[in-house]
Amino acid sequence: MSTPRLLFVPLLLSLACGGSDPGGSTGGTDDSTSTGPGTSTGTTDTPGPTGTGVDPTTPTSSTTSATTTTTTTTGDETTTTTSPVTSTTTTTGGPDTTTTTTTGDTDTTTGGPIDGFLIGVHTADVSPSDAHLDQNVYMGAYGAPFTRGPAQGVHDAIFARSFAIEGEGGGVIMAIVDLPGMGNQNTRAVRQKVAELTGLDEGQVLVGTTHSHSAPDLMGLWGGVPDDYRDFINDEIAHSMAAAWDARVPATLAVATVKAPNNNRRGWGFTDDDMTILDAKDLEGNRLGTLVNFAAHPVILGEDNKEISCDYVGYSVQKIEAALGAPASLFNGTLGDATPKVPDGQYPDDFARAQAYGELLADIAIAAVETAEPVEGTLVWSHTEWEQGVDNLLFQLAAGLGILQFDFESMGLSQVVTTQSTYFRLGTQVQGVAFPGESLTRNGLAIKEVMKTPHKMILGNTGDALGYFIPSDEWQTGKNDNYEETVSLGKTAGDTARDKINALVTADNANF
């Protein structure tokens, strides 16, 4: 370990995405009550979702429509895809307000009309080997860099779980990986490889992480991982996503949304407790896979755990797969201030607590599948990128020391990061977005408020993992001792992401 890194450790003593909620069972002040699967009640005496408008500035725009070839250049690599798209670039004069939006056009992937959905799934074990562990694999999201020590083994395997879906209008591939997060150097490498393997636009490639605090650090904030493990996992994720795309078969899709128990650690009397389930079957009625979207920090295993694990997510997925007989995945949702609500009981250890909560969520999801309604076989997608200012001094220092697996760009005396979101709609039943970090409840609900469909999905920590996104009117108001603010890009990040994403949703709302 170099001297600059040793000097840097005291500056990051509070840098833990689990924050003041190790163990994650109650966190903060919780005024909400859950009365069992499918029901939830709560009291609210403070403002709810806020700021659903788009950017107040007046933009200038240029639009190019119906192109047949898209060339993307990143660094020394150029990727060319052949999918008709509409691309809009909007500049409003500041580093936080430059947007590029790509919108999918009809039949962007197969070259011909699609009757219903084509769906494929794939699962890849991405656990580090003993050889990787011998080189020191650090786990993420608790404590300062290196202080937790490297992982001492693998308690339960971690996976990349890919779900590819195409309908009339286009397609997307969604992968969820059992990691605390992934730096944009890694997600960019995955998206580029998947685009190369499939011919899709990078905006159609959604890479998310469960945010398990007992999984390898692909962000670089807590010690990182060996280069060969980093290369291995990026390659495995990309090939899993491509394999899911290649495995597509004609299929039906059904959706259900129910309530499930969680807490809010910032003291709000509510959180986003919706659980949305997508269930896919082939035309003979054989189940292909099930995707669950629900918000709760995987922090039941505390900082004292030294073994790699999926936390409660693994137990949940395992039970769903055993009951339904097909691969399953769990995408975290509006997780920024959402924590687990472990059932009361006497547990021998935290793994037993994680199992209890994971299996409780699984039972709710399994029951919900029986109530799922069919989804029309169309898919609409759009993608946006913008530059967000990096005001957090700790992030700036970490980037300067080269320990982050993120690319922050210098603009004069300030830094910015280019981030992104993809929006998708399935029929007229489901709208969803990839959120580039950990959205707080009120930020996420402000996005869902704009959606028109009965089922609404926010895939948290997907596309990027840029810390907490906090509504500006909640910034440093003393909630959870202002912990989330210490692991945020800055005060404007939450409002900017919300408005950029809501612009995508609003643009599509006029189409149905």
SS-based structural class?
alpha+beta
Summarize model confidence as the mean pLDDT. 84
Helicity range of the residues? Answer: 10-25%
Poorly predicted runs: 1-14, 20-47, 51-98
DSSP summary: helix tally: 9
Count of domain modules = 1
Outline type: globular
Tally of DSSP β-strands: 27
% residues in beta strands: 25-35%
Largest sheet: 9 strands, mixed
Give the C-alpha Rg.
21 Å
Separation, N- and C-terminal Cα atoms:
56 Å
Keywords: Signal
Region (Disordered): 19-111
Signal peptide: 1-19
Biased composition (Low complexity): 28-111
Task: List key phrases describing it.
512 residues, nine-stranded mixed sheet, single chain, alpha+beta, disordered N terminus, globular, eight-stranded mixed sheet, 9 helices
How would you portray this structure in words?
There is one protein chain. The protein is an alpha+beta fold and 512 residues long. It has one domain. Helix content is 22%, strand content 30%. A hairpin with a 2-residue loop joins strand 10 (159-167) and strand 11 (170-177). The longest helix is centred in the middle third of the chain and has 20 residues, at 227-246. The chain is globular and about 55 Å long. It starts with a helix and ends with a helix. Keywords: Signal.
